[in-house]
């Protein structure tokens, strides 16, 4: 039956005969469609298909934690006083009665002890910030290891990376607002790092703090942090989240390879009503879990630390985990200084504040480095299995190990006391580990990926081990292997194994010297590192499978990406396509 549309915009049978008078809701919908085109948008997006895989929930954890952050943050702004004016506290927390403190700290105590539900909301806000950043980092690692950052999602990758950077600073500014002893110690480190910048450090410090630390000439730092924390950064983050979701809808969702899944389709459930119902239920789960954690686990008890005083510092002062790696850089860095022309350059602080953004920038630029090294200009909507890209997986694992070392360095004093070691021993172990551990992790991860590739190859060719031992007529004992299904063979062999770029010959066919640009040599070198010798274990071809099982044993419908259908190479004349069967170079 053909579908008719109303003259007002497209709802089927809006005023057709036999239906009677349209309901109020239908009339409102028709009015809105005539001005906004909602019927067309609904047809296009409400039935959009989303794949079903547990790893996609990581992005939803980020989204719903961010929603909880916004909701709880709005509630807290109703009671918080962002002022450094000194007051004498007279409130419900008796141990601090009569103590001089800032209005910011006093209002934080009021929220915690006198506002109904204030402590619960405050702790929900803090816990959701921790879980949001944790989910964001794991979500980005999932995208990194599966290669979903490739064309056309480079912009979305940069949006996610920018969200991560903004979230780090948003967290720093947020837990600095209460003006307690712990947050004041953190701001003191920020001031010291700012002063270490050559030439302009003192000017930057005066600009940020409004004068001498900690209060400046008129106590401006808390109001400034408050404005940035509740207005500027949240507005940017909301805009980026909306842009991220729009691009997810526009590009369609990535999916893992499998039968029936190609670069041109998506296999899964529609957005409305299946995915929307799941997302709504998952939001309730995240909200409930955050409320349960906040109600049972104390975090940031500012009343224990007391108000900030420049002449004091709290023991066991540790930042939130997501900034622990920045403090770890400072703690394990030697206290080097350079005196020149009457000025002192504090390398012990300057080098860490330079390494801090570089560690993050490495994440941002990697997708472009990989695209440049492969010359691949095609769109990719199928994800990679991490084992099939050992170099990329090794780089990601090495980055994580370096991050964890710096994070451990942020608590080197606690590690020393808990393990009954000298703090110098812990610090020197971390200094050596920063150079040795990432290399060891890269090598180990690379070897593990190659081992998993070999196992996949054996499973495709010989089947899965069953544990059943059979005795052959001549007395030999063998284990019976169960052949994989066609779907399983396809999943294990659907990936490509591209060959590395070549810089080209130094002479042409006539013996004339052909100039090779340095950029081309560097590009070929990086490409060989990613896809050259040792990067792959050659995946089985259809010919190998037929020779082992016979040409009619299992047919060819489930062939593992064989000779007749090689994996296409990147769309550029400078890149050779894969060998038959998707094989890498012969020496791999």
From TrEMBL:
<dbReference type="GO" id="GO:0022904">
    <property type="term" value="P:respiratory electron transport chain"/>
</dbReference>
<keyword id="KW-0408">Iron</keyword>
<dbReference type="GO" id="GO:0005886">
    <property type="term" value="C:plasma membrane"/>
</dbReference>
<feature type="compositionally biased region" description="Gly residues">
    <location>
        <begin position="10"/>
        <end position="20"/>
    </location>
</feature>
<keyword id="KW-0349">Heme</keyword>
<dbReference type="Pfam" id="PF13631">
    <property type="entry name" value="Cytochrom_B_N_2"/>
</dbReference>
<feature type="transmembrane region" description="Helical">
    <location>
        <begin position="428"/>
        <end position="450"/>
    </location>
</feature>
<feature type="transmembrane region" description="Helical">
    <location>
        <begin position="189"/>
        <end position="209"/>
    </location>
</feature>
<feature type="transmembrane region" description="Helical">
    <location>
        <begin position="390"/>
        <end position="408"/>
    </location>
</feature>
<feature type="region of interest" description="Disordered">
    <location>
        <begin position="1"/>
        <end position="24"/>
    </location>
</feature>
<feature type="transmembrane region" description="Helical">
    <location>
        <begin position="282"/>
        <end position="303"/>
    </location>
</feature>
<feature type="transmembrane region" description="Helical">
    <location>
        <begin position="229"/>
        <end position="249"/>
    </location>
</feature>
<keyword id="KW-1003">Cell membrane</keyword>
<feature type="domain" description="Cytochrome b/b6 N-terminal region profile">
    <location>
        <begin position="28"/>
        <end position="257"/>
    </location>
</feature>
<dbReference type="GO" id="GO:0008121">
    <property type="term" value="F:quinol-cytochrome-c reductase activity"/>
</dbReference>
<keyword id="KW-0472">Membrane</keyword>
<dbReference type="InterPro" id="IPR005797">
    <property type="entry name" value="Cyt_b/b6_N"/>
</dbReference>
<feature type="transmembrane region" description="Helical">
    <location>
        <begin position="157"/>
        <end position="177"/>
    </location>
</feature>
<dbReference type="InterPro" id="IPR027387">
    <property type="entry name" value="Cytb/b6-like_sf"/>
</dbReference>
<feature type="transmembrane region" description="Helical">
    <location>
        <begin position="54"/>
        <end position="80"/>
    </location>
</feature>
<dbReference type="InterPro" id="IPR016174">
    <property type="entry name" value="Di-haem_cyt_TM"/>
</dbReference>
<keyword id="KW-0679">Respiratory chain</keyword>
<feature type="transmembrane region" description="Helical">
    <location>
        <begin position="349"/>
        <end position="369"/>
    </location>
</feature>
<keyword id="KW-0812">Transmembrane</keyword>
<keyword id="KW-1278">Translocase</keyword>
<protein>
    <recommendedName>
        <fullName>Cytochrome bc1 complex cytochrome b subunit</fullName>
        <ecNumber>7.1.1.8</ecNumber>
    </recommendedName>
</protein>
<keyword id="KW-0479">Metal-binding</keyword>
<feature type="transmembrane region" description="Helical">
    <location>
        <begin position="126"/>
        <end position="145"/>
    </location>
</feature>
<keyword id="KW-0813">Transport</keyword>
<feature type="region of interest" description="Disordered">
    <location>
        <begin position="542"/>
        <end position="588"/>
    </location>
</feature>
<dbReference type="GO" id="GO:0016491">
    <property type="term" value="F:oxidoreductase activity"/>
</dbReference>
<dbReference type="GO" id="GO:0046872">
    <property type="term" value="F:metal ion binding"/>
</dbReference>
<keyword id="KW-1133">Transmembrane helix</keyword>
<keyword id="KW-0249">Electron transport</keyword>
